[in-house]
Design goal:
It contains 24 helices and two strands. By secondary structure, the protein is an all-alpha fold. Strands 1-2 form a two-stranded antiparallel ribbon. The termini are far apart.
Length: 486
């Protein structure tokens, strides 16, 4: 099985995808005229505007839902593994991928808003919806929906669950199956409550967990502030092969930096587009801008916090080069990448050795748990795309059981296999979504131009697709008519 998964990953994550993601991000950055910088003020302000409704959630709730998926194991384990396999230079390429990926996130989230639907009283949308409506090809949207369901219900939840059980076992000595049982109980309670309960949970947990983690990183950075020039210099030198120790790892730095950045911030994967469609906004570009900024929060803040803690304390081991850090022997004995971060926090507080493991375990629990919730929501949305009526109800309950089952199984299986399965699911979604966006980026560009034109006129932008020549956006025509009648 391991060998088969390795072969599949080699195909999905070959140079075409790794460098293709960067190329697509650069293309969208150029087409939007660097929207992720020009309209960054709008991105921040729009987070706290917009009202929720019976059918939709607020912009901030949609942002929290998206961040619940973006801020997960990729921020702690993914960042540590990027350093392990790509050297410190991988961190630089994670930053680059996040910067240009913000434009990709804008495009996919704006498209999700343009082509969303109202199903069973709630807003639904995402790549499957906009691929079908934008290209007119049902089979194309179905392809993404199937890939998304396989990935988010069967393949990737195990990565998050495995990270939780590994960290908790390391910190508190609790058996993985006990952690798995507890996880399934609280997971079931929330997903049975539907999108509204998920949105409320994410709005509470995501800001709390992100701020707490960043505060800890800030304390460690302040304690080691004299090392900042040295660590930043190491990151930049090794990113371009200028460092003597990491000089032969440029290719690995780029590949692992891009791969783990995509896994973490999900730009191009299509995950963030699903909650983006659920937002109650007057113009699609509004939520596109909000979601583009969420990429910065994920990678430039949270991933950077992990990277700096690990590099400051030297608690890493590079496995594809000659350089080693403080955990060489322990890593050879089977230490996981979670332990890189746990050891970093413990090293920062030598008089409280157990604190680091406990803090990272608790942080990782919240990060990974909310990500599993996000995965369920994505799977449910794609089930809603594929089925109607009783079939949709039956399929939804099956997905609930699948997510809980795969999460429990993930707590007791090996970490390497969990990550390998996660990479397969991620690769499938990225391939289909990127191709779909390339074929139909035009409506997103029209929406952006319309948004900016209305802003210059001093208006609160509203969206009228028929006036802009955008076809297939039936939701907005009905929505505007309903508001007019009110």
């Amino acid at each position: 099985m391991d060998r088969f998964v390795e072969i599949v990953n080699g195909i999905l994550w070959g140079p075409w995808l790794v460098y293709g993601i960067l190329a697509v991000g650069l293309l969208f950055t150029f087409m939007t005229r660097v929207v992720q910088v020009r309209l960054i003020k709008d991105s921040v302000m729009l987070m706290f505007k917009g009202e929720k409704s019976e059918s939709g959630v607020s912009s901030f709730e949609a942002l929290s839902m998206a961040l619940s998926g973006r801020v997960g194991t990729g921020n702690i384990i993914g960042t540590a593994s990027a350093i392990a396999f790509g050297g410190p230079g991988a961190v630089f390429w994670m930053w680059v991928t996040a910067f240009i990926g913000a434009s990709t996130a804008f495009v996919e989230s704006t498209l999700a808003q343009i082509y969303k639907e109202k199903k069973n009283g709630v807003y639904r949308g995402g790549p499957a919806f906009y691929i079908e409506k934008g290209t007119g090809k049902r089979w194309f949207g179905t392809l993404f929906a199937i890939a998304a369901i396989l990935a988010t219900a069967f393949l990737i939840p195990g990565v998050q669950a495995n990270a939780i059980s590994s960290a908790i076992d390391n910190a508190f000595g609790i058996e993985p199956w006990i952690t798995g049982a507890f996880l399934v109980v609280i997971l079931g309670f929330i997903i049975v409550g539907g999108v509204k309960r998920f949105a409320k949970t994410a709005t509470i947990l995501v800001p709390f967990m992100a701020v707490a983690y960043l505060l800890m990183a800030f304390v460690i950075i302040v304690m080691n502030i004299s090392q900042i020039p040295e660590v930043l210099g190491l990151i930049f030198r090794s990113a371009f092969g200028a460092d003597a120790v990491f000089g032969g790892m440029v290719g690995s730095a780029i590949a692992w930096g891009v791969k783990r950045a995509i896994f973490s911030n999900e730009a191009g994967q299509g995950n963030g587009a699903h909650p983006a469609a659920a937002a109650e906004v007057s113009h699609p570009a509004k939520q596109g801008l909000v979601q583009s900024f969420s990429v910065y929060i994920d990678t430039l803040l949270v991933c950077s916090a992990t990277a700096l803690m690990v590099l400051f304390m030297g608690t890493y081991n590079v496995q594809e080069g000659s350089a080693t850090g403080a955990l060489v022997q322990e890593n050879a004995a089977g230490i996981t990448y979670t332990d890189f971060t746990q050891a970093a926090v413990s090293s920062a507080f030598p008089n409280f050795q157990s604190f680091g493991s406990a803090f990272v375990a608790i942080a990782l629990f919240f990060f990974a748990f909310t990500t599993i919730l996000s995965y369920y929501y994505i799977a449910e949305t794609n089930v809603a795309y594929l089925f109607k009526g009783k079939k949709e109800v039956m399929a939804t309950w099956f997905i609930k059981a699948a997510v809980m089952g795969t999460s429990f199984y993930g707590t007791v299986r090996t970490s390497d296999l969990a990550w390998a399965f996660g990479d397969v699911g991620l690769g499938l979604m990225v391939w289909v979504n990127i191709l779909g966006m390339l074929l139909m980026v035009k409506p997103a560009m029209i929406a952006l131009k319309d948004y900016e034109a209305q802003r210059k006129e001093g208006k609160d932008p509203t969206f009228h697709p028929e006036k802009l020549g955008i076809k297939g956006a039936e939701f907005w025509i009905a929505y505007n008519e309903e508001r007019k009648n009110k």
